[in-house]
Design goal:
Layout: H1 2-8, H2 26-32, H3 34-43, H4 48-58, H5 81-88, E1 96-99, H6 105-121, E2 126-130, H7 141-150, E3 159-163, E4 172-177
Parallel strand pairs: 1-2
Antiparallel strand pairs: 2-4, 3-4
Helix pairs in contact: 6-7
Length: 182
């Protein structure tokens, strides 16, 4: 632990506003405020080994960075200008189209997953998914769920960008997919 502190002592956070102070180990907290622990220590004795384990649990959790969240109509990092302009202007040829009108949400989800895996197997570059705007009491459930479905771990690596083919129609999306080089 001391070696690690020596390694990271000169490192400054990239985002100081988000940096959190290191929590104190449990053993230091006990030493600072012994009054509540006197009553507890009379009833239960805690070995030092458990305190160090508790200190490890109190440390902040380091999480892996997530891949860029997918947002409709927002250019993803790493996408070249030409492909983005062609996709966003609707000039990119659509290889296949999936129409989800009239499906219940679970069936639409199953069809989308199957369609995306077929698109990957056939090395399609651009596909269109029509969800419709929705009507009735549960208006547009498929349309609202589609971005979440595209975030799934098995689908997200396939997708480069998602746009609405026409600004006034949010009932369909065009999806630019990663392709295998030939």
């Amino acid at each position: 632990m001391a070696l690690w502190r020596m390694v990271v002592r000169d490192i400054a956070p990239m985002h100081p506003a988000r940096a959190k102070p290191e929590p104190q180990p449990v053993s230091q907290k006990i030493k600072e405020d012994p009054k509540p622990m006197k009553a507890l220590s009379a009833a239960v004795t805690v070995p030092e080994r458990e305190l160090s384990f508790g200190a490890m649990l109190a440390r902040p959790v380091v999480r892996r960075t997530r891949a860029q969240d997918l947002r409709i109509g927002v250019r993803a990092p790493g996408l070249d200008d030409t492909s983005w302009k062609r996709l966003s202007r609707g000039n990119l040829k659509v290889d296949a189209k999936l129409d989800l009108h009239g499906y219940i949400v679970q069936d639409a989800f199953d069809r989308l997953i199957e369609f995306m895996h077929r698109a990957k197997a056939r090395n399609w570059r651009c596909v269109e998914v029509v969800t419709g705007l929705g009507s009735g009491a549960t208006s547009g459930l498929i349309r609202r769920e589609l971005p979440l479905w595209l975030q799934r771990a098995d689908i997200r690596p396939m997708v480069l960008a998602v746009v609405h083919p026409h600004a006034a129609n949010h009932g369909s999306v065009r999806i630019l997919l990663r392709t295998k080089r030939k």
